[in-house]
Amino acid sequence: MKNACLFSVLFAAASAFAAEGWTDCNRNGTCDPYEDPSLPVERRVEDLLARMTPEEKAGQLYQDCASDPKENFDAGQGFHAKIRDGRIGSFIWNCSAPGERNRYQRAALEETRLGIPLSFAHDVIHGCNLIFPISPALAGAFEPELFRRMQRIAAVEARAQGVDWCFAPMCDVARDVRWGRVQETCGEDPYLAALCVAEQVKGFQNGDPSSPDAVAACLKHFVGYSAGTGGRDYTATHFGEWDLRNIYLPPFRAGVDAGVATIMSSFNDIDGIPACANRHTLTDVLRGEWKWNGLVVSDWDAIGELCFWGYAANRAEAGALAMNAGNDVDMMGGAFVQAQGEGLVGEVKAGRVSAAAVDEAVRRLLRFKFRVGLFERPYVDEGRLAKVTDEAGDFRKAARVLAREAAAKACVLAKNAKETLPLDPAKLKRVALIGPMGDDGDEMIGAWFAHGRGEETVSLAAGLKAAMPDVAIDVVKGCALNTEAKTTTLQDGKAVVVSDDPSFYDAAAAVEAAKAADLVVMAVGELKGWTGENTSRAFLGLTGRQQELFDAVAESGKPIVTVLFCGRPLSVPAVWEKSAAVLYAWQPGSEAGNALADVLLGKVDPSGRFSMSVPRDRGQCPIFYNHATGSRPWDGHYRDLPRKPAYPFGYGLTYTTFAYTNPKVTRRADGTLEATAKVTNTGKRAGTEVVQLYINQLACRGGWRPRRELRGFERITLQPGESREVVFALDEKRLGYVKRDGQFACDHGEYKFWIAPDSVSGDEVLFNY
Ligand code: BGC
User: Fold this and answer.
1) Which of 65, 128, 231, 412 has a beta carbon 3.0–4.6 Å from 652's, enabling a disulfide?
2) Catalytic residue chosen out of the listed positions 299, 440, 598, 605
3) Residue 123 in contact with ligand 1 by CB distance below 6 A
4) Is the pLDDT confidence value at 496 over 80?
């Protein structure tokens, strides 16, 4: 069934349910203008704003976090009291039961003076209930549309879960893979990331975030968060306006152009001024240059943490600084409502914040709530979740098909010596699947798994067994994922140990299984708890004793196919060297095992590419392809490491080979230019190639342009011997850059282009524009 059709069947009942919501206009016995859906939103916003007290305004601008268990709400205490007293406008909604949301919402609607509905937000990053591959993996498919399809599914699930606002897409550009949060990014390239971000916004919001199968999206983290010094989290950055404009802002701009409803300000500073109090980015750029009138929410306590930065003396002042800079909502910090003195109310009285600034923030918040449909449809249909998560239902089946397709397209084949892959089950009697990732569902779904569940995930073992029923597969764990106890944080915030035994190590059993097998599949990597937020790493190898296990198994002399599970591109020289084949699977999501089996057995040809450069060693970090040529491009490198990464951005093997010939620039009759090259499948199998266009401007007065910049790509599938001429227009949009004042520019002058399979190869072509 086509998705559109599937959604309409599923939610035919939802609109009927909506009538039960906000239709009675009865807060004060009359139907006030703000309660009248027939009036224009701006009129309703102004009407409601005019009725609000300063305290109610401050309360609306505060976001709290609710987690299971439900006792939080009981007996008029806790959240119930806060909602009733108008001290909360929205929640980070980490609760799992949609009915709970209705309970909270009912209190807001029925027990407050104006009955302003609450909004419920959640971190839905790469799936809500069914989990998809993480974003850097999916970006590497070079098929941004996959993001839209994924977030359509996620949006439907999120709404069913009771969520109307998703804290994604992540727009940060990954330049240092030591930073744990590269796991959430769309990779190191701003052009590719921008396309992936735009598609995500379209997927989440579907043109109208108020519809029952859409949600509001949130671009985060505005801006420059990924530039933390040394790949560390929550720390200072060092970049100027040039990089801000051309590296860090473009994905946000793409999200804004796609119509995003909200943006989250970040933890980092930008040239000394913390991002949530940065008037240049929040007001001059967002509101002034981009004319965007959506809602800005701070990151978790980022406003309160202005005191840790040594930027604000206390929370009240922090709140004032953030508000004056253009930050509308305070997530968790309490700076607007619970600060010393009276928070925002007191700051207005003292003249440190203007009433007009607060009104403007409230306006944006109310506009957002109208836009998301909360006034007309405040409650969630408690029956929907069961429908969308029913394994036998059409919706879940379609979601699984997409998750499988996405994970197969996202994995990257880094090495394939002697055509070890694809595996031919007819030639195999016994395979040893060795490593702690081999039969683990939990690790497959990554660090932001929302409501995803390990037990609903197809492990690699399950996938291989289903794909090769006649081959004996010995599954041997070999060792724990880490020598530290593995913990997970429950919805109520408690950390619990979930690993069996962190000291577990049994290389002998692994070696014995390897010796008895025709081939070994090593399933190793980094534990998901060491990826994502607050998980920077100084070493980029396998965690725990996995390398030792790998080396012991390699001694058996059996061919090894290594499948790497990771949230960042791991740097594992011994694995690259000793394995016959290496497949980077990232964190592939709920359909992990099926998708990987599809690729390993050649049912699907590998076509994923690295969305981040893979360092040879951590000493190369930060490493990214679009660096400066510098003053001596041939010199100045480390004495003990080559300059190039182990695998460059854009790199990935297929099961066939492609040749690139005759790259040239031609001028069309209308005077415009195009770059072309002939791509031929020179191998024996059909295959999909990701053809990439890179450009370089030779002399740019605005500032130096990187040695190469990705400005186009196309996935093409060719039969053996087949050729295709690939064409890219060389126009302003492709060649331009953003000047320090925010204006887009494209200079006349000399340029180069490459049409190539990755960011380091290909023949350059000089041309004048
Ligand atoms: C993260 C955000 C996230 C927020 C709410 C913060 O710590 O930086 O990405 O959206 O928490 O969970």
Assistant:
1) 412
2) 299
3) yes
4) no
- Pairwise pLDDT comparison (496 vs 398), residue with the higher score: 398
- CA-nearest residue for atom 7, ligand 1, is 300
**Predicted model pTM:** 0.95
Find out whether 546 and 526 touch, Cβ atoms under 8 Å: no
DSSP-derived 3-state class of residue 715? strand
Map tokens 């793409």 to a residue. 254
Residue 181 Cβ inside 6 Å of ligand 1? The answer reads no
pLDDT mean over 98-115 = 95
Decide if pLDDT at 750 tops 70: yes
299 is catalytic: yes
CA 581 – CA 575 distance, rounded (Å): 9
Contact 677, 660 (CB under 8 A): yes
What average pLDDT score do residues 187-212 get?
97
Looking at ligand 1, which residue's alpha carbon is closest to its atom 4? Answer: 300
Q: How is the beta sheet containing 709-718 ordered, strand by strand?
A: 709-718, 687-697, 750-756, 764-768
DSSP code of residue 704: P
Pocket of ligand 1 contains residue 65 by CB under 6 Å: no
User: Is the pLDDT assigned to residue 659 strictly greater than 90?
Assistant: yes
The residue contributing the CA closest to ligand 1 atom 5 is 300
Interval between CA 570 and ligand 1 midpoint (Å): 24
Return the closest-CA partner of residue 627 out of 610, 651, 645, 646: 645
Pairing type for strands 90-94 and 269-270 reads unpaired
pLDDT of 255 higher than 50: yes
Please name the residue whose Cα sits nearest to atom 12 of ligand 1. Answer: 123
Angle, CA of 764, 582 and 641, to the nearest 5°: 55
pLDDT at position 78 is: 84
**CB-based contact 544:443 (threshold 8 Å):** no
- Looking at per-residue confidence, does 295 or 5 come out higher? 295
